[in-house]
Amino acid sequence: MPTNYTSSPLSILIMETIDLNTIKQQTETILTDLLNSHPLVKGSVFVIGCSSSEVAGGLIGKNSSAEIGAAIFEVAHKLLAERGLYLACQCCEHLNRALVVETECAERYGYEPVSVVPWLHGGGSFATAAYSGFSQAVVVEHVKASAGLDIGDTLIGMHLKDVAVPVHPTPNQIGAAHVVAAFCRPKLIGGERARYVKG
Question: What is the per-residue pLDDT across 73-128, written as a single tens digit (0 to 9) for each?
């Protein structure tokens, strides 16, 4: 990882009290439970927003940790790839919450790449890890994900399909960060004559 991606002095101090293995285990537990309870079709997009600052017990955007971002990306990328799902990693609001995805994902869904390279304080540690960790990473402005995970109240709703259904995982924290998830269902349309189950 390039040297300008190093963590802030405060996050380095915080890291002394944080067990990365625990963070990885919490991430794996929450993701696995969500994917088992709400299975996705192979090739679906799964969006994750992650504040490493919140995971470390700090304030979003203030205590970024390259180590935490990389640890969570490593677990999420592996689990989703095993199920044939595309991971979309949301950048911070300084990059308008753009997303890092694999080129294959962008081409399959027609997502137009933009020119930007995430880094620790302009994109965030999670997106930075994804940009380095994907085999062929690109950044896109929007996706329509079938499900997602929000680690640290980063607001992923703008990248979810209609209609998002909230899920409150147990446990509901990764490190010190609050976690909420969502899966999406098709809209129920029509009036009084509409049916929603085959009769």
Answer: 999 999 999 999 999 999 998 999 999 999 999 999 999 999 999 999 999 999 99
47 closest CA partner among 133, 198, 161: 161
- CATH number given to 21-184: 3.40.50.10360
Predicted TM-score (pTM) above 0.70: yes
Beta bridge partners of 50: 151
Q: How far is the C-alpha of 152 from the C-alpha of 171, rounded, in Å?
A: 14
Among residues 155, 179, 130, the alpha carbon closest in space to that of 28 is found at 179
Which two three-digit tokens encode residue 65?
């940790």
Count CB atoms within 10 A of the CB of residue 50.
31
Check if the beta carbon of residue 176 is closer than 8 Å to that of residue 54.
yes
The helix/strand/coil state of 182 is strand
**Domain boundaries in the chain?**
21-184
Determine the Cα–Cα distance for residues 144 and 146; give it in Å rounded to an integer: 7
Express the helix, strand and coil content of the chain in percent, nearest 5 each: 35, 25, 40
